[in-house]
Amino acid sequence: MKKITLVYFSPTKTTETVLKAITQGLAQSLGISGSEITAVNVTRPEIRENGLAPFDDNDIVLLGAPVYAGRLPADAADFFKKLTGSDTPAILTVVYGNREYDDALLELKDIASACGFIPISGAAFIGEHSFASADIPVAMNRPDENDLKMAAEFGGNTGYLIKETHDLKNLSALTVPGNYPYKDGMGKGAPDFIEVTEACTNCGTCATACPSKAIDAENGFVTITARCILCCACIKACPEKARLMKDGPIKDKARWLNETCSLPKSAQIFFATPS
Ligand SMILES: Cc1cc2nc3c(=O)[nH]c(=O)nc-3n(C[C@H](O)[C@H](O)[C@H](O)COP(=O)(O)O)c2cc1C
Ligand code: SF4
Ligand code: SF4
C-alpha cells in the first residue's frame, strides 16, 4: 500500500484547498485510505525549521505553493530544497491569482527533480488573489466548484498513470511551461501597506497566521515591514476585519490586477508520458 504526503506552503489557504481536492481524486483512484494520507502544512515558520524524513518509492508526494511574482515564494522553495526523495513520484501544483504563473511550476519541477523525486504530473490552478478584497475582487472565491472538480480529476488521472506504469523511471520527463533564467521573484520586505484599526481586540490571530514572524504582538500588532512577504494572510484571518490594506502601491497593484486580469482563467495540467 502506498502512502500519500502533501507538503504545502499556503498563507491564504487556496493552495491547501486545491491540494486536498487533488488528493481526494488520487486516493480514490489508487484505493488509498485516509490513514495513509498525511498533510504537512509548512506555512508556519517553526514548522519549516526542521526538514522531513526522506521519502522512498512507496510514497507519493504532493508539493504545492502559491505563485509570487512568477516564482515560488522563497520560504517555500527553501523548504522544498531540503526534502529528499528516492525515485519518489511527485505531483507538483502551483496556485496563482489569475495573472500568470510564469516560471513557478518549472522552478518546482527543477527542485523536485534535484531532490530525488520523479515529477509525474504538474498543474497550475487559480486561487483568489492574496491582494483581493470585497472592493477589489481579483479572482475572488477561486478555487470554485469547477476548479475543485478539475483538481480531483487531475488527482484521479495521476493515480491511473501511477497504476498503469510498470516503472515510473521509464516515463519521459515531465514538461511544464517556464523560462530560464527564472523571473526575479520576491525578496523579503514590503512597503508599510497594512493599517490596524480601532476594531482590533488584540486576539493575536494575525500573528499566528503570519508565515514570516512579521507581526509585533507587543506593539499593537503592527507589521514588521522588513520581514513581511506581502502574503495578506493576516488581513484575511482577522476576525474583526481590523487589518486593512492602506491606500498605496499594493492597493494600486490590486486595482491594476482587477482591471487587467479579470477574464477568469482555467487550470493547466501536465503529465509525464510513457516513453
Ligand atoms: C507577493 C505576492 C505575489 C504574487 N504574485 C502573483 C503572480 O505573479 N501571478 C499571479 O497570478 N498571482 C500572484 N499572486 C497571487 C497568489 O499566487 C494567489 O493569490 C494564490 O492563490 C495564493 O495562494 P495561498 O492562498 O495558498 O496563499 C501573488 C500574491 C502575493 C502575496
Ligand atoms: S487578528 Fe485582527 S483583531 Fe486580532 S490582533 Fe490581529 S488585527 Fe487585532
Ligand atoms: S505581516 Fe506580512 S507576512 Fe505576515 S501575514 Fe501579514 S502580509 Fe503576510
Which stretches of 5+ consecutive residues score pLDDT under 50?
Answer: none
Helices and strands, in N-to-C order? EHEHEHEHEHEHEEHEHE
The structural domain count equals 2
Helix content percent band? 25-40%
Q: Averaging pLDDT over every residue, what do you get?
A: 96
Count every helix, treating DSSP H or I runs of 4 or more residues as helices: 8
CATH topology of the largest domain: Rossmann fold
What shape does the CA trace take? globular
Which CATH class of the largest domain is shown?
Answer: Alpha Beta
Q: What is the number of E strands?
A: 10
Name the beta content range.
15-25%
Distance between the termini: 26 Å
| Ligands bound to this protein structure | flavin mononucleotide, iron/sulfur cluster
Q: Describe the main β-sheet briefly.
A: 6 strands, mixed
Layout of helices and strands:
Elements: E1 3-8, H1 14-30, E2 37-41, H2 45-48, E3 59-66, H3 74-80, E4 88-96, H4 104-114, E5 117-126, H5 145-164, E6 194-196, H6 205-209, E7 215-216, E8 222-223, H7 233-237, E9 243-245, H8 249-260, E10 268-271
Parallel strand pairs: 1-2, 1-3, 3-4, 4-5
Antiparallel strand pairs: 5-10, 6-9, 7-8
Bound molecules: flavin mononucleotide (FMN) and iron/sulfur cluster (2 copies).
Flavin mononucleotide is lined by residues 10-15, 66-70, 95-100, 127-130, 186, 230-232.
